[in-house]
Amino acid sequence: MGLVERAATHAGGIRKRASPILDLLKSLQQERGVTLVLVTHSPRVARVADRVAYMVDGRIQREAPPL
What we know:
By secondary structure, this protein is an alpha+beta fold. The protein has one domain. It has three helices and four strands. The longest helix is centred in the middle third of the chain and has 15 residues, at 18-32. The chain is globular.
């Protein structure tokens, strides 16, 4: 399992760098068959996910496919 915090997916504040990082993480996840957990506030970043959990105050409010 891999855990990716928002700062890593946001690439230190430079959004144009996030896409190659997300592409790499997604390909590693698919090639190795591991679980990858992304933590983000960005719907654009969440689109790479197979499943999205929406949280409020640390609790899952609902789960859905990405938008």
